[in-house]
C-alpha cells in the first residue's frame, strides 16, 4: 500500500460480518487511510442509551436493541456521508443496511473467530454466550451477509491486507 492518502466519494463504506470478524479494527484502519472517521453502531447505541449492549439485551430484550439499530440506520443514512461504518453483527440480519452506503462483508471462518475472541470479548456479546448456538447463528447468517454485500473480503488476513483488498476493490469508484 502506498503512503498516499486515498479519497473516497460521498458514499459511506459499511462493514458487515459476524461477531469477531474485525469490523471495528478494520473501520479504524480504513478511516486513517482514507483520511476520514470511523463510526461504530454498537458504540453509538451504547452512548445514546448510556447502557452497555449486554444491559440493553438483559433489561429490554433483543427486540428493543434491534429497534435502536433500525432507528440508527435511518439516521446514519440521512445524516452521514464519507465515513466508515462498523455495524453490529446482527444489523443486516434484522434490517436493510444498504441505504447507509457501499456494503463490505468481512468473511471469516467460525474457528478463526473463536480464536480471536477472548473470554472478556465474548462476555460483552449476549449472543456469543454458548458456542454451539453461536455456530448455528453463524450458519444461518452467512448467506444473508453474502446477499447484502457489494463486495466480499477474506477477513482472516492481517488488517493491512484486508484494507488493501477493500481499497483495491473500490478503486474504480474512488478518486
Ligand atoms: C450482535 C453483535 C454485536 C452486538 C450485539 C448483537 C449480533 O456486535 O451488536 O451483541 O447479533 O451478532 P459485534 O458484531 O461488534 O460483536
From TrEMBL:
Binds 1 Mg(2+) ion per subunit. One of its GO terms (biological process) is chorismate biosynthetic process. Mg(2+) binds at residue 24. InterPro entries: P-loop_NTPase, Shikimate/glucono_kinase, Shikimate_kinase/TSH1. ATP binds at residues 20-25, 125. Keywords: Amino-acid biosynthesis, Aromatic amino acid biosynthesis, ATP-binding, Cytoplasm, Kinase, Magnesium, Metal-binding, Nucleotide-binding, Transferase. GO terms for molecular function: ATP binding; magnesium ion binding; shikimate kinase activity. It comes from the Bacteria. One of its GO terms (cellular component) is cytosol. Substrate binds at residues 42, 66, 89, 141. CDD domains: SK (cd00464). Its EC number is 2.7.1.71. It is found in: Cytoplasm. It catalyses: shikimate + ATP = 3-phosphoshikimate + ADP + H(+). Coiled coil: none annotated. Its cofactor is Mg(2+). It holds the Pfam family SKI. Catalyzes the specific phosphorylation of the 3-hydroxyl group of shikimic acid using ATP as a cosubstrate. Belongs to the shikimate kinase family. PANTHER family: SHIKIMATE KINASE, SHIKIMATE KINASE 1, CHLOROPLASTIC. This is Shikimate kinase. It comes from Helicobacter fennelliae MRY12-0050.
Amino acid at each position: 500500500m502506498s503512503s498516499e492518502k486515498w479519497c473516497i466519494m460521498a458514499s459511506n463504506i459499511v462493514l458487515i460480518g459476524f461477531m469477531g470478524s474485525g469490523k471495528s479494527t478494520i473501520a479504524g484502519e480504513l478511516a486513517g487511510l482514507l483520511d476520514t472517521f470511523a463510526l461504530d453502531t454498537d458504540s453509538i447505541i451504547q452512548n445514546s442509551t448510556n447502557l452497555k449492549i449486554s444491559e440493553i439485551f438483559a433489561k429490554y430484550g433483543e427486540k428493543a436493541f434491534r429497534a435502536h439499530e433500525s432507528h440508527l440506520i435511518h439516521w446514519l443514512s440521512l445524516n452521514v456521508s464519507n465515513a466508515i461504518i462498523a455495524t453490529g453483527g446482527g444489523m443486516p440480519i434484522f434490517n436493510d443496511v444498504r441505504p447507509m452506503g457501499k456494503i463490505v462483508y468481512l468473511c471469516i471462518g467460525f474457528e478463526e473467530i473463536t480464536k480471536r475472541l477472548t473470554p472478556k470479548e465474548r462476555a460483552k456479546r449476549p449472543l456469543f454466550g454458548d458456542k454451539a448456538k453461536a455456530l448455528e447463528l453463524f450458519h444461518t447468517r452467512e448467506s444473508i451477509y453474502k446477499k447484502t454485500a457489494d463486495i466480499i473480503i477474506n477477513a482472516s488476513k492481517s488488517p493491512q491486507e484486508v484494507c488493501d483488498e477493500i481499497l483495491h476493490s473500490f478503486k474504480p469508484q474512488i478518486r
